[in-house]
Amino acid sequence: MSEQDNEQNNSVRFADLSLSQPVQDALVEIGYETPSPIQAKAIPVVLSGRDLIGQAQTGTGKTAAFALPLLSMLDPKDEGPKAIILAPTRELALQVAESISNYGRMVKRLHVTAIYGGTDFTRQFRELDRKPAIVVGTPGRIMDHIRRGSLDLSRISHVVLDEADEMLRMGFIEDVEWILEHTPAERQTALFSATMPPRIAAIAKKQLKDPVTVAIKASTATVSTVRQRFIKCNGMRHKIEVLGDLLETEERDAAIVFTRTKSAASEVAEELAQNGHSVEAIHGDISQGRREKAVALLKEGKIDILVATDVAARGLDVDRISHVFNFDIPDDAEPYIHRIGRAGRAGRSGEAILLLTRRDFRKLRNIEDATRQQMQPMPPPSRALIAEIRQAKLEKKIGDIITEGKFNRERTAITDAIANLETDAETLAAVLLKMLQAGKSLPSGISSSSPSFQDNRESRSPRESRGSRQDRDFGRERDRGPRRERPVRDGDAPRARPDRKSDAPAPSADVERFRVEVGHNHQVKPGNIVGAIANEAGLEAKYIGRIDIFDDHSTVDLPKGMPKEVLKVLKKAWVSGQQLQMSRVVEKRRNHFEK
């Protein structure tokens, strides 16, 4: 029996495939909604108990094609290995075991272990003593454990041969046949192979009973107008730094940053917001309404960056997206194709950049094989390029102020300073710029009336602009206090919050307190407010002080002497779909505000 399917059936959803409820719950949490072609065809076959031949390229989603039905069928309470999965390499065995554990996160008492060569037996003995329901391994090490008596396959009910043609090419096929002889005759077997050479066809004929064949061609529809590149990184912190440099140096419009997990999406978005980017995070823990609002803000140009898990990859259509940054590489080619398809819309060119650690390179090769396209390596942005771009931005801002022409007071102060200090204009300008770069306040007569000139972020590296760990962690401290300051409500009837003095201490002498018209009711976080102020006012995040968030508004401490032009800009800035409408708090009467 054979089924050919070369087109993805977008009408089928995972919810339609009779998977167990814990597996469906896990898919919802991960953000997977629509199966790939191999998954849509193979899952019902495996659930029916039939043997299966799956002919599909690596990167088409075949791991989930056998893992999801296996997890739905196995009873973890029944101790001992019930399924064994053979893979050609250590890396693939680890990847498959990790994916199965992820898909089975809601299955109680599930234990999955990976067994492979090149490592000590002791840990593997301990793992097998726990009687895992699913064992994933390379043929040679599986044989070793069978011979030592540490792995008993007598109660195996499911066998999966993953990348069978690769095991043939590597000389493991006799080992595979030996292992199969040690499993019960009454078992369900699934064989996956990108090609079907005669030796694999012979094994399938001998070992599988009346199998259903599902043949899927890998999608190669990566958008031709999107250039695909990758950068080698050393862990998450390095990725965040490289991403910040890319956002600064790439000529772009809007961008999407894709992460693997919800926590990573939140962390990356918070980092970017604290460094002055207009950004929102969308993932499975965020309501559909808030997701739609974030996408609308991106479409309208009120934010420039979305940080998203794959829950946002499908159906997201925003013409102004020029760049897709894959902060984490996906497991398979299908989600990768969906991700980069968000750039280069309507025939326009786009950019897709992957940030890779050493352990990601097998996934990269799998995606390249599946899409038949090779990605080009690129170096991280150089310090020289970053300095050049910052210099150009600084000169443009200065040029804008010169064009505006509103700096007579400052011109007089400079003229007086040149005469009094007996120096020249070039030296004085260099000193003032150095003060700005060091984050020092300018003398009151010289401080600019333009918000643009205060953007001393342009002259600082991303690492410097983040400030200390204490500076970076301020958001969590602030987000705890304000909720305790909410007023007690009378009975069940809600009433408007009065503008009263909060429990927050008065600002110190060198800062002033401002009110912004966005609060808990708008799901705002401190990082959102910091990002908007830093981006619009050109003020480093570390100079933005205490933030208290209330139901319908927030207060924020800023350096004293903020020019009126800056406040005018911040009145019109948008955060969480609200205009800030910033106003200065009058300290003598905290319930009145200057507009």
From TrEMBL:
Q: Which family does it belong to?
A: Belongs to the DEAD box helicase family.
Top enzyme class, one word, equals hydrolase
Domain DEAD-box RNA helicase Q, which positions?
12-40
Q: Name one Pfam family in it.
A: DeaD_dimer
Which residue ranges does the record assign to the Helicase C-terminal domain? 241-386
The Helicase ATP-binding domain covers 43-214
Q: Which GO terms describe its molecular function?
A: ATP binding; hydrolase activity; RNA helicase activity; RNA strand annealing activity
Return the protein name.
Answer: DEAD-box ATP-dependent RNA helicase RhpA
**Where are the annotated segments for Disordered?**
441-511
Where is it mainly found?
cytoplasm
The record, for InterPro entries, names:
CsdA_RRM, DbpA/CsdA_RNA-bd_dom, DEAD/DEAH_box_helicase_dom, DEAD/DEAH_RhlB, DEAD_box_RNA_helicases, DeaD_dimer, Helicase_ATP-bd, Helicase_C-like
Low complexity bias spans: 441-452
Kindly list the organism's lineage.
Answer: Bacteria, Pseudomonadati, Verrucomicrobiota, Opitutia, Puniceicoccales
UniProt subcellular location = Cytoplasm
Q: Name one GO biological process term.
A: ribosome assembly
Q: Which reaction does it catalyse?
A: ATP + H2O = ADP + phosphate + H(+)
Q: Where is the composition biased (Basic and acidic residues)?
A: 455-503
What is one term from the GO cellular component aspect held by the record?
A: ribosome
Please state the span of the N-terminal signal peptide per the UniProt entry. none
Coiled coil ranges (UniProt) are none
Its EC number is 3.6.4.13
Q: Which domain of life is it from?
A: Bacteria
